[in-house]
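re: ur question from the group chat, yeah i did fold both. here u go
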Amino acid sequence: MKKFNFLMFACLVISISSFAQKEFAKEGYQLVWADEFNRDGKLDTTKWKYEHGFVRNQELQWYQPDNAWCEKGVLVIEARKVQIPNPTYKEGSKSWGAARKNIEYTSASVNTAGKHSWQYGRFVMRAKIDVSSGMWPAWWTLGVAGEWPSNGEIDIMEYYRNMLLANIAIGTDQRYKAHWFSKTKDIKELGGKKWANKFHTWRMDWDENAISLYMDDMLLNKVDMKDLHNKDKAGLNPFKQPHYMLLDLAIGGMNGGEVGDTVFPNRFEIDYVRVYQKENQIKRAF
């Protein structure tokens, strides 16, 4: 009976997915890139690359490839609690990463930089996130050219401190200082832990007119392209260039909050990631 139910569920998911693609086709979208994660073991390195070590935002985790793998049709990014020496440790260092004597958490971050990037399109991810204290899962994009934040950032899915976020960032006249267009949704409004126990679908529609961010077809944030010029002398729009995507599970740091009594290992599970474009946008896929 369990096997039958699983097969029925799998058929239902495929049916819903096929229906969505047909609906997208009616709007002129065609699939240009996807990873369904239908393989067991390591990620497809023709599509993804890994980040290594302590990377950003004073986060607690050490990124390493071993914490990401494909299993039963999903990508698993797993955060673990550990106690191992930090190979980059330097006594007396003022660098937040090198100042840590030990690694207390490991996780994974993967991206398509240098492999695949896109300008405009419909980006879709089906995933399940854990909303425990200190967890900071994200699906986001960065522009291929320019220094952050003047290269542009789009947080299609981001979660921390009981908030689901949909953010867009541009540069300012101060280096490393972003101007954010941010919207949040309290997890309690969505159903809290019960909501988090299920898979949900995030979507970005990005064209020459606007960037719109959705969760389960609920519009979370929309910003017109005319409002997305960097606030510096050059005034460039960082979303008139290709962006690459990132998937990661961070812990703590500048935004993630206190870990508290969160149970580890902890997972961010991704069923698929797909990119659709219209005929006039396909030339902007790289």
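okk and heres the other one u asked abt
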Amino acid sequence: MERHYVGSEIGQLRTVMLHRPLLSLQRLTPSNCQELLFDDVLCVERAVEEHNQFAQLLRDQNINVLLLGELLAETLQNTEARDWLLSAQLSDYRLGPTLASPLREWLADLPADQLSRYLTGGLTWQEIPETLLKSRTISPMQSPFITRPLPNHLFTRDTSCWIYQGVSINPMAKPARQRETDNLRAIYRWHPLFQDNQYINYYGNEERRYDHATLEGGDVLVIGHGTVLIGLSERTTIQGVEFLATSLFHHQQANKVILVELPKHRACMHLDTVMTHLDIDTFSIYPEIIQADMPCWMLTPDGKGGIKHHSPRPLVALLEEALAVTEIRFITTGGDIFESEREQWNDANNVLTLRPGVVVGYDRNLRTNEKYDKAGIKILTIRGDELGRGRGGARCMSCPLERDDLEGVRS
């Protein structure tokens, strides 16, 4: 197996990237949380404690846990990486040349771990030397931030997603998240873990404006057997999917992309908030959005370097065909209609599968967790009273870098 390879959603998880929230959450306030895509201000100490518990649970399951902030700090030891990332995040066009150039020079001299902290947690006007502002006769912008914090780095699944032998470094839909992509581009290009290894860059790694062709990893499920399931959501567009599919087909890493159209609202912002893969023949679904007979589309290579759109077919038929199983089991969100809606909002369906039939989820989703248990799915629980308020569960908070394919998984 390749060192960085994700062959399924349910094969043994071996290496995962998380991001421990701290400075970016400390900078969430009632006045800025909405624009930073959070519904509320979290208790930082409890959120960090819950995240530490999540990371430790994975380590206890013999999964290698890498932390994004540490990877970024190690990447910034490379002068070329540091110069590129500072130019990308603090350009002359963002700050004006009289400030941008001296600010980049000042930041370039900081220790790598402090620079990583600013590039993920944001930088305020109060944190820079006053001498840098003397050449600026007009007062700086009204925001307290030179660069805003990136609290959504917590959800490492979205910014990049590994699909078979390559990675998609995703053009994010919301301005509050777009700078996250630069941090991941730097890590995958210059960090020693990736610099000397061969892997495919499918999409999002070029210096260009991607316009409406956005894509986020929470919408991407690597089903296995050369199939990828992608949600068309408020964050992932058909334009982005077509570019990714074309690249997957070109590199012969997939032969089918199944499209699931989702409502364009926050309650189901990504496919994995309403559907995840738990075992070879078993999925968790929120039945108000996902139904077995809902029409879904399939993309395949057209034999000329492009893609072919197929007529819609029922979701369950496409999944059975892709997984080579005779019947798919759907476990629906637990409880009555009120409990089900509440638990879906609290990410009952957004679980991380560690190996076939073993998943991690929040302990607060009692009714859904009971249904998992009765269906033979082992649920390992973590606290999510604070983390869950960010609207993301265990799957959202994890980016698998190495996971087994379906070979050897029971059928």
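fwiw on the second one: The chain has a mean pLDDT of 90. The CA atoms of residues 261 and 275 lie 12 Å apart. idk if thats what u expected
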